[in-house]
């Protein structure tokens, strides 16, 4: 039996509860989502194109619990929230398991023209606005999106009005704390209207070690004309936590989107980025890093399409893998007909720090006109033996020399972050990760896969 069947069967049994504890705008897409899942019959397998190293079917196979009654599940927020960024003041909200929890700081300090609330609340209070954007970018013919749409009862809604500049970054902390195997269908809808500016730091944490969790996440982001968005995604979860994140972005003319995703500690992760550049003069930066040890698995897949003129994009993904860790990167850049004067670059570079670590990489270019500048490349190798020898001759122990070289390898990914305080914090987190010490995540500190 397909692992998908347990969730479609559960939905059919609890559909009335799910609808009653959600909102009509969200409920309206469930029949089409269920129909799409019935047609698909299963979730992606490694035999499918683009999933050569990750089985989504297997990721969903455990008998995860859901929360259709929207019951509160306790979490020790003070013990879990340790991703403080010194000297960086943020507007903080949390998602505890699958429930949105605003903080008093957020409620009191949101400027006029900015809405940050539960997606369910927004769908009840502003149904026309949510209906205009919800489910418009994430297609239901993708099984992961359809399953998330079928089961999602609430999420996070962020709306920044035209011309509004949010001077403080938003921070969203996702927490798993249930004491039983649990799947959270998480959803984020971010709309930055024309000329708006917003930066968001998202952190994923696991509070209860030894419990299996699955984060099923769909993100939809609209960047209006001239909008500027910064998106920073840090994952520090447990070895028993799986994450399947599907990200969709649409950019209108002259919009800027900068992002950096850092997988520092995890179990099994699949991140998909689908970016549609539809307006002229857009800029897109997609950066990511992964540090893998033990049997961790990290898979990043990007599909970026340029449909307009005079736009630029840069992709940079780097992995450092040790022990039996595995990684995958598949990236595609498409320059459509008429997208003249596009500049698009893609790079994937990887270090295998042990003989048992494995990396799969597959960069791709699809170019349908001549007036462009595009390149892509991938390299996978080991630490520079000559550099290690030189450092040891200068009195640096082998372990310290390895750590220094691995840290230096990731510097340009960290430098892609526009927030100086966050750059400094991430450097510190990476240093701690390589040294085996975690000051930011209690669970990870006790995780045997946390040392490299």
Question: Could you describe the 3D structure shown?
Answer:
The chain has 452 residues and is an alpha/beta fold. The chain has one domain. It has 14 helices and 19 strands. The chain has a ten-stranded mixed β-sheet with strand order 2-1-5-7-9-11-13-15-17-19. It is globular, with a radius of gyration of 21 Å.
What's the count of strands?
19
Beta-strand content estimate: 35-45%
Largest sheet features: 10 strands, mixed
Query: Shape, please?
Result: globular
Average residue pLDDT: 92
Protein structure class: alpha/beta
Number of domains: 1
Which consecutive residue ranges, at least 5 long each, have pLDDT under 50? 439-452
Q: Distance N terminus to C terminus? A: 38 Å
Helical proportion, percent range = 25-40%
Radius of gyration: 21 Å
Give the spatial strand order of the biggest sheet: 2-1-5-7-9-11-13-15-17-19
- Total number of helices: 14
Provide a concise account of the structure shown.
This protein is of the alpha/beta class and 452 residues long. The chain has helices at residues 3-20, 24-27, 30-40, 56-59, 77-80, 104-109, 119-125, 127-133, 143-151, 385-393, 398-409, 411-414, 420-435, 442-445; strands at residues 91-96, 99-102, 114-118, 156-160, 170-176, 182-192, 197-206, 213-223, 228-236, 241-251, 256-265, 268-277, 283-292, 297-306, 312-321, 326-335, 342-352, 358-367, 372-381. A hairpin with a 2-residue loop joins β1 (91-96) and β2.
């Amino acid at each position: 039996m397909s692992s998908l069947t347990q969730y479609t069967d559960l939905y059919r049994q609890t559909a009335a509860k799910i609808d009653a504890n959600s909102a009509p705008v969200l409920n309206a897409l469930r029949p089409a989502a269920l129909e799409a899942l019935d047609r698909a019959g299963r979730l992606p397998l490694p035999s499918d194109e683009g999933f050569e190293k990750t089985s989504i079917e297997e990721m969903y196979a455990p008998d995860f619990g859901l929360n259709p009654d929207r019951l509160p599940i306790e979490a020790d927020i003070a013990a879990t929230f340790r991703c403080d960024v010194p000297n960086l003041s943020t507007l903080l909200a949390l998602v505890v398991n699958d429930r949105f929890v605003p903080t008093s700081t957020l409620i009191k300090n949101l400027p006029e023209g900015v809405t940050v609330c539960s997606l369910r609340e927004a769908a009840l209070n502003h149904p026309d606005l949510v209906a205009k954007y919800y489910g418009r970018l994430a297609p239901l013919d993708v099984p992961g999106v359809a399953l998330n749409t079928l089961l999602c009862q609430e999420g996070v809604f962020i709306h920044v009005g035209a011309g509004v500049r949010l001077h403080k970054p938003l921070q969203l902390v996702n927490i798993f704390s249930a004491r039983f195997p649990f799947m959270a269908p998480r959803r984020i809808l971010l709309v930055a209207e024309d000329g708006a500016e917003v930066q968001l730091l998202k952190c994923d944490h696991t509070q209860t070690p030894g419990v299996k969790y699955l984060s099923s996440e769909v993100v939809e982001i609209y960047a209006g004309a001239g909008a500027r968005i910064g998106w920073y995604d840090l994952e520090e979860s447990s070895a028993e936590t799986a994450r399947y994140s599907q990200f969709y972005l649409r950019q209108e003319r002259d919009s800027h989107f900068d992002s950096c995703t850092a997988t520092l500690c995890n179990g099994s992760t699949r991140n998909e980025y689908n970016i549609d550049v539809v307006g002229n003069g857009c800029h897109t930066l997609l950066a990511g890093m992964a540090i893998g040890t033990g049997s961790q698995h990290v898979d990043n897949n990007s599909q970026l399409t340029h449909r307009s003129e005079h736009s630029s994009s840069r992709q940079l993904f780097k992995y450092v893998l040790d022990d039996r860790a595995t990684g995958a990167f598949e990236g595609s850049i498409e320059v459509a007909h008429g997208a003249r004067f596009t500049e698009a670059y893609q790079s994937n570079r990887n270090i295998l720090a042990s003989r048992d670590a494995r990396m799969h990489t597959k960069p791709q270019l699809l170019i349908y006109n001549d007036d462009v500048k595009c390149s892509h490349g991938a390299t996978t190798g080991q630490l520079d033996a000559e550099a290690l020898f030189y450092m040891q001759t200068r009195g640096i122990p082998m372990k310290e020399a390895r750590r220094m070289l691995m840290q230096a390898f990731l510097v340009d990914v960290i430098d892609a972050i526009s927030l100086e305080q966050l750059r400094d914090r991430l450097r510190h987190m990476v240093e701690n990760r390589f040294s085996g010490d975690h000051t930011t995540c209690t669970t990870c500190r006790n995780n045997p896969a946390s040392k490299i």
